Amino acid sequence: MSHKIIYRHWQSGDDDAILELLMPIFKQVREDRYQKKFDNSHLEAEAVHLALVNERVVGHVWGESASIFVEGKIQEFGMVTLACVAQDMRRRGIATRLMDGLHAYFQRKGYRGSILYTDSEIAAQLYQKVGYQEVTREVRTQVSPRQDSSSLKWSEASLGDLDALQQLNQRWTRYNFPVLWDGQGTVVHQFNIRQYRVLRRGESIIGYAKWDEPSAHRPDGLIRDPIVLDEDPMVVIASVQSAISTPRAWQTFKGSKYESSLRSLAYPLEQTTQVDMFLAFGQEIDLTGYHRTAY
Question: Taking CA atoms, which of 22, 43, 83, 270 is between 20 and 30 Å from 29?
Answer without folding.
Answer: 270
